[in-house]
Amino acid sequence: MAIATGETGIHGACAPEFTRVREVFEDNFARGLETGAAFTVFVGDEPVVDLWGGLADHRTASPWKHDTPCLAFSCTKALTAAAALRVAERGGRDLRAPVASWWPKFAAEGKDGVTGEQLMSHQAGLPAFDRRVTVAEAADHAAMAELLAAQAPVWEPGTAHGYHSLTYGWLAGEITRRLDGRTVGRYVADEIAGPLGLDLWVGAPDGVLDRTARLTTGPTNRKPARGNGATAAGTAMPGTASDAARPDGEADGPRARLARDARDPESLFSRAFASPDVAAVPGKYNNRDVLTAGWPAAGVITTAPALAGFYRDLLAGRIVSPATLQDALRPRATGPDRVLHLDSSFGLGFMRPSLTFAVPRAARKGAFGHTGAGGSIGLADTDHDIALAYVMNRTGTELSGGIRAMRLVKAVYDCLR
């Protein structure tokens, strides 16, 4: 690959045929949309883009380095799903069987028919805790799972789906914890990240936290220069300027309902995202107790090369068999989301193209992956044999994806033509 360093402050390498990707990455910084960020792309096993730049910590002006890890929020769900799929594959477990067959207490409140596949595809009807959960409580994975096992579903499982923003990890994560005996974080370290040499952690040790990028906020969606825009932007947090710029065309459309729910602390949407109560601890998602806890829905700390490498290895059959992956990508839940109101689509843990996982037209058949709140993304494409990841420490208002990531993804596909 050609080295891409210079006055722009962007470092790394980019194959000549992917020069457009480097230009878009640089432009995100030039327009003041980034603090620090990294973007990696593999075609097959070959790295064709590996870029980074900016600041890992705006307070100390510490530069972002090649090995700077960053919290990537719900990108974690793909790792939790992969762990569950691997455990089930190796143990000969059928995820279509009732969860209660291996987690008896889960049968409470009429959930005896809920299957493992429904846990993994946001169909279980448990998108929020019935009570406020503290960050300290959330460190106990078994206790979180037991709280959810005792709850009644808010819809009949299997009849609808809704994004389980944080509860997903303690539901799908029980497949690994109960059938293997290890937490998701321990399993990922032992069976995936360690053997494959991936710098990612679901629950990071202190030594990693010392060099982890510090999250900050700021503008992330200024209009791009002419010719630089992506056709597909991420789903904006309701009530923001980005959201207002995408009218439903009707007063009670899905975006309007989502905006109302975001303002109502008792709505299903607000409860799904507000507990565990990160807002109550100093530093919020920069808090070390949050970052070490290994929340299996939103706790991965990763470099861009590691997250892209995870998807590369998924495609190559190094984590689960190609047949298991192909089956996992078959959409299990598609259409209006009971939490987000917008259309979403899920296989077994992986997002598929939809309004909440927006991808270029060329990616709509083979793309899968997961976004993270604030703008991060991990994506692979079975048709094009590509794997990519974007991580950054300036979190935007996007619930899923974002203009920075989508411009980069679009640039990648433009370079494949």
From TrEMBL:
It comes from the Bacteria. Coiled coil: none annotated. InterPro entries: Beta-lactam-related (IPR001466), Beta-lactam/transpept-like (IPR012338), Beta-lactamase/esterase (IPR052907). The keyword Metal-binding does not apply. Gene3D superfamilies: DD-peptidase/beta-lactamase superfamily. Residues 245-261 have a biased composition (Basic and acidic residues). Keywords: Hydrolase. Pfam families: Beta-lactamase (PF00144). GO terms for molecular function: hydrolase activity. Residues 213-261 are annotated as: Disordered. Residues 26-408 form the Beta-lactamase-related domain. Residues 226-241 have a biased composition (Low complexity). This is Serine hydrolase domain-containing protein. It comes from Nocardiopsis rhodophaea. The lineage of its organism: Bacteria, Bacillati, Actinomycetota, Actinomycetes, Streptosporangiales.
